[in-house]
Amino acid sequence: MEKINQLTPKEIRKLIRKGKWDKPTAGLAVGYAQANLVILPQKYAFDFLLFCQRNPKPCPLLEVLEPGVYRTEFLSSDIDIRTDIPRYNIYRKGKLEATLKEIKGLWEKDFVTFLLGCSFSFEEALLRVKIPIRHIEENKNVPMYITNIPCKPAGIFYGPMVVTMRPIPLDKVTRAVQITSRYASVHGMPIHICDPSIIGIKDLRKPDFGDSVTIKEGEVPVFWACGVTPQAVVMKAKPDLCITHKPGHMLISDLLNEELATH
Amino acid sequence: MEKINQLTPKEIRKLIRKGKWDKPTAGLAVGYAQANLVILPQKYAFDFLLFCQRNPKPCPLLEVLEPGVYRTEFLSSDIDIRTDIPRYNIYRKGKLEATLKEIKGLWEKDFVTFLLGCSFSFEEALLRVKIPIRHIEENKNVPMYITNIPCKPAGIFYGPMVVTMRPIPLDKVTRAVQITSRYASVHGMPIHICDPSIIGIKDLRKPDFGDSVTIKEGEVPVFWACGVTPQAVVMKAKPDLCITHKPGHMLISDLLNEELATH
User: Fold this and answer.
1) Which residues of A touch B42 (CB under 8 A)?
2) Which residues lie closer than 8 Å to B195 by C-beta, 6 or more apart?
3) Pairing state of beta strands B32-41 and A111-117?
4) Does the ipTM surpass 0.95?
5) Residue B91 forms beta bridges with which residues?
6) pLDDT tens digits, B250-259
7) How deeply is B168 buried, as exposed, middle or buried, from its count of CB atoms within 10 A (0-12, 13-18, 19+)?
8) Which residues on chain B are in Cβ contact (under 8 Å) with A42?
9) How does pLDDT run across B76-118, given as a tens digit for each residue?
10) What are B176-204's pLDDT values in tens digits?
């Protein structure tokens, strides 16, 4: 096997397409944007698109494809949505039914594909100015928490916002706000700083998803809207069918993170 | 009649609702965001929402209502979409059929309302830093041009981008870019600066809509995506029915322009 973290997005997708890579994509194609995947039958598509429009922080849309279309235009001209993601989760009526390496056999003409921004993009920007990312340092998954902040409902979709937490040194908090504000299409600026109880988080040591990380003296917890929110919301609405990526097993695009910056 | 330009948004909407104001809204409720209106039957709603998602500069969504809903939440809790706009244009199969003062009698349970940002908001921000707005100085309508820049199509909707032009003194062009970049939800930064022929405009003295304005020595034409684009595109697609505001006769919201700034 080639050294995968030296390959281009196109080369990595080729390996994935051939079934030769079905592991997480963190650390691959550094500098390029990765995307969350949600596929829904057309009858749910307006409601979900409206949900994303109303909740741009947890659900930042990078690209939405027309019914039946499995080729992207904006993220790359060389992506097949049915084969280019390492692992797919198949949910029926909100229940995980299977995890597959490709979904060609399941594809239907009325499937609408939604691709959403991923915080990997802004983490790279934070690291570039030497703001530490604790879960990367500790080789863990980012800690995620269910908050008491309700998303704005749309049609059948509703639920609380899920957030990620990164401990930030006090003297770098404003810089972290400033930098992540540039990346509205990958969750953007934090939604909360400091006291977790205000957003309904009882114990930072017990995340609802991912791993607990160390908060050092002189650091404050900073919270960003999380891409798990749309998946949690979709699962709650229990559509007949929903296909997502397996968490951490993202779509790797040809877009540079910098191309997503708004200013 | 009270001096209307001293009234609050709520007071002005009350006059409009009673049929006592059916004129343009430029200059009213200064500091508050005004919105473009597009109402479509539900069968066209996904395509149009997708069109706006793909073309955020000409079609910046402020709020989208669920099918049948005529009360806003984000723009104000005191708006009735059927009565609170001074003049409505009723289009059937792309043809203007009537211009009405209210649409209660036409309202259907499957109508989906789209409210889009308006450049009045960023003009206020430019004026605050003493960047002149020529069409306001000359008491004219902003000049608008059909470009050769194609919008990204979505479903039945397609067409060229329409732009507005404002002559800006050379030494203030970068400041104008910087300031309007803050207002992504009201068309944002310019899409082109200088040579109009590059975007397919043959003669600046002959705008496709609105009025021609003076370009003084030492000024360059600066072009922004225009809210006429979605209406032009909808008319081209010839849906059975589409209701819009009459150009210039906008919805006045309770949101301050500053609340729309992204950074």
Assistant:
1) 46
2) none
3) unpaired
4) no
5) B96, B242
6) 999 999 999 9
7) buried
8) 46
9) 999 999 999 999 999 999 999 999 999 999 999 999 999 999 9
10) 999 999 999 999 999 999 999 999 999 99
CB B9 within 8 A of CB B29: yes
Q: Cα separations (Å) of A44 from A240, B65, B67?
A: 10, 16, 14
Gap between the terminal Cα atoms of chain A:
39
Closest of A2, A63, A112 to residue A251, by C-alpha: A63
**Cβ of A53 and B50 within 8 Å?**
no
AA letter at A194: C
Measured at the CA of B43, the angle between CA B39 and CA B44, to 5 degrees, comes to: 55
Q: Predicted confidence band at B5 (pLDDT cuts at 50, 70, 90)?
A: confident
State residue A61 phi and psi, 5-degree precision. Answer: -75, 125
pLDDT band at B1 (very low <50, low <70, confident <90, very high): low
Q: Write the CA distances from B70 to A55, B45, B65, B262, integer angstroms.
A: 20, 15, 7, 27
Q: What is the pLDDT of residues A7-30, one digit of tens each?
A: 999 999 999 999 999 999 988 999
Phi, psi of A41 (to 5 degrees): -60, 150
Taking CB atoms and an 8 Å limit, are B53 and A49 in contact across chains?
A: yes
- Positive or negative, the Cα torsion across A183, A185, A191, A193? negative
Query: Quick check: B67 and B42 in contact, CB under 8 A?
Result: yes
Helix H segments across chain A?
Answer: 9-17, 45-54, 120-128, 134-137, 173-181, 228-237, 257-260
DSSP state of B189: S
The reported pTM is 0.94
Picking from A132, A123, A174, the residue whose alpha carbon sits closest to that of residue B263 is: A174
Q: Which tokens belong to B92?
A: 């059937």
Residue type, A263: H
DSSP letter for B23, please.
S
Residue B11, H or E segment: helix B9-17
Which residue numbers of B have CB closer than 8 Å to A's CBs? 42, 45-46, 49-50, 53-54, 61, 64, 66, 73, 152, 154-155, 181-182, 184, 262-263
Query: Which residue in the block uniquely carries the two structure tokens 């669920």?
Result: B66
* Residue A104, both tokens: 């060609």
- Rounded CA gap, A47 and B221, in Å? 41
Per-chain mean pLDDT for chain A: 95
User: In chain B, what residues touch A50 (CB-CB under 8 Å)?
Assistant: 49, 64, 66
| Residues pairing with B167 in the sheet | B221
